[in-house]
Amino acid sequence: GTARKERAPMHGSSDERTRTGMSPESLKRAFVDSMFYVQARYWEVATPHDLYMAAAYTVRDRMLERWIRTAETYRKADARTVCYLSAEYLLGPQLGNNLINLGIVDSARQGARDLGIDLQEILDQEPEPGLGNGGLGRLAACYLDSLATLSIPAIGYGIRYEHGIFDQKIVDGWQVEDCDLWLTNGNPWEIPRPLLRYPVRFGGHTEPYTDEHGRFRVRWVPELDLYGMAYDTPVLGFGNDNTNLLRLWHATAGRSFDLQAFHKGDYYGAVNAKVGAENITKVLYPNDEPEVGKELRLKQQYFFVSCSLQDMVRVHLQHAPNLEGFHERFAAQLNDTHPSIAVAELMRLCLDEHGMDWERAWEITRRTFAYTNHTLLPEALETWPVELFGRLLPRHLEIIYEINARFLDELRMRYPFDPERVARMSLIEEGPVRRVRMAHLATVGSFAVNGVAAIHSELVKSTVLRDFHELWPEKFHNITNGVTPRRFIQLSNPDLCGIITDLAGPGWARDAENLRTLEPHADDAAFQQRWQAMKRAAKERLAARIREATGAVVDPQSLFDIQVKRIHEYKRQHLNLLHIVALYHRIKQGTDSDPTPRTFVFGGKAAPGYFMAKLIIKLIHSVAEVINRDPEVNQRLRVVFVPNFNVKNAECIYPAADLSEQISTAGKEASGTGNMKFSMNGALTIGTLDGANVEIRDAVGHENFFLFGLTVAEVERTLAEGYRPWEYYRSHDELREVIDLLRSGLFSHGDPDLFRPLTDSLLQHDPYLLLADYPAYVEAQARAGDAFRDPAGWTRMSILNAARTGFFSSDRAIREYCRNIWQVEPMPVSLAAGNGSVP
Ligand code: 8GP
Questions:
Q1: Active site residue 480
Q2: What share of the chain is helix, strand, coil (3-state, %, to 5)?
Q3: How many angstroms is it from 670 CA to the middle of ligand 1?
Q4: Predicted confidence (pLDDT) per residue in 536-547, tens digit
Q5: Does residue 813's CB lie within 6 angstroms of at least one atom of ligand 1?
Q6: How many CB atoms lie within 10 A of CB 706?
Q7: In the chain, what are the domains?
């Protein structure tokens, strides 16, 4: 894009109010206008979907002026820009959030009311862009919100999956996956950019040649080319005028298909090949761990990384004659290893396409990237078989080999008598199948590496990247995750928002430390009453939603004890179940001493191929079935599973929680972010010393947190000493009875085998130490139950949780990234200045 010499007029001042005015009157007029001119509908026949679309276009118009002005401001200032590379963005519904960030919720509600429409009904129409699996994808979305809010020039790059995370249906207690169709009715938030396309190549071979200066070079002769086309979504800041760009790539077939196949006369074969190319962006892999050797997954990763880097190069060359200084214009964050092929791709662009020499290319590359690690689970660390890698990306494999050869030389010099260390650090894992270690590539190719919570960052340094930390200690950072208070307080919990705003003024949503103004009121009786009413209303809303979704009736007076997150053995939903069955058992035995009525709420998706996780979902439903229909028990206990946990449901769930279950085995949960959302909404946590729980507990006060369980060191020791879960089973009567109940067929209509794989795993291996942690967990639960029977004491703790969790705002996290990693400064955008754009 060449810059226009003369400024094109923005839309004229006469219609400016219609398209940008924020009063209820302007919004109403624009809405009616959009219904006619965009949706092509008249009032009497408009469907709820038409209402949503018209509302979305009305809001979008108001975003575009900001967006264009932002692009203009960044470009003129030649601003250093953050590029967030992520295979996932779990955005959640856009309309409500955009209304908040524009500051027009009240105007919109008023305008809708004037037209006889309930704003909530419109909001409920929106299908959510579920372009992520869980924590990592949602974190990326929170970070986009904070980057814009902090006026940081930033672009989010990712994949426009046609089908996001599957819809979860429950049939007879089992998870059944259904295709997500978020794009079917159109996506009003994206702007397709058909002219913004980049070629992406795969396969073929490489060949050496000598260039015009007589230098040795390599040329990649690929077999296949596709195109990546940009779809842009504006991302509003809150309380400012900055509006950043989320650019997602969509795959379309390139010309090689036409030339090779159509011209050979194989029409159907050609069409098929085209369809194959377009498959690349069809579907999000629904796993929270990499699937071994999935070719399409590697293609997805390279596809979006290549498009993104080509786009960055294009922008850079608008300002500079060559790629020198690329790393000064951009800081590129690798959200886990999924985009780490970027290291090899930027090398290729510098070397092969821009004629740079190796040393300079490597310098630029290493100074461009930074890498965030999100997991320590060995099975989740990405590696790709060399064979597959070389077949799809022969040139990149060569480059990786060369990076590795030079790196290993350096290591051998530094550790001449330690060949084992050198082998451990290699980018290539040697073995029957040789593999590329993506975490090593990301670490070697980056100037910074960070973990996502204090304890996790320490573990990164002492376990998976230990050798690298010894080599480059200064490269390693911690940046504890954060979540956006706009979506997870203001949007999800309007009553809480009202309470905070009354005390702290409206500034708290930009400066979450202001939540502390709640603290002095923690013991104030009138304030406590208002707080309780807020919780109560949120619980009633969730109860209504549960009834609608499952038919189950729950009592909003009971303690809402909630665990929502992906289903995984390390997250230990089944530990929660062991406690529930223990409570059931005590009531049946008449030995119960904790009369606190409780509603246990579960939610979360299981990876479609993860048998144990799916069996845990079945067990939750089976236990629920027995408990909920037993009149001796169901006055005291209810168990429900909210199907299809997603951002939309989450917004209704977090505010309603009394108790937040964060019970992973110590050392396994990198951070957790749900834990923060619960706590901000006044839930107390029952949790282990894992991930961000550690910092949440320190922030809210140890007396306001129900801690239990083995520490990381104790977990290690227990396993090292030869853990025998069977012994816990034998020596702990209640635990034994609980497990025997699961094996009795009571929860499986008499079939003692149904849950066998789960109970066998617990008794024989128990890799996540449920049995070892069981006594402490049950004891902590009893403390929580007791505490809940003192409403004033509980409310005080609840208020203090919300008051002290400002640290977990994603604004704080992004400030730390800006200062400690990216070295990037805010670039505020002003709409008011006008800059003469309107003639
Ligand atoms: C998650 C971690 O499990 C969680 O502890 C952390 O809070 C979150 O990332 C954000 O840092 N990891 C993933 O979601 C993850 O690895 N997802 C894979 C599907 C890519």
A1: no
A2: 50, 15, 30
A3: 7
A4: 999 999 999 999
A5: no
A6: 22
A7: 17-77+103-127 (no CATH), 78-93+128-478 (3.40.50.2000), 554-808 (3.40.50.2000)
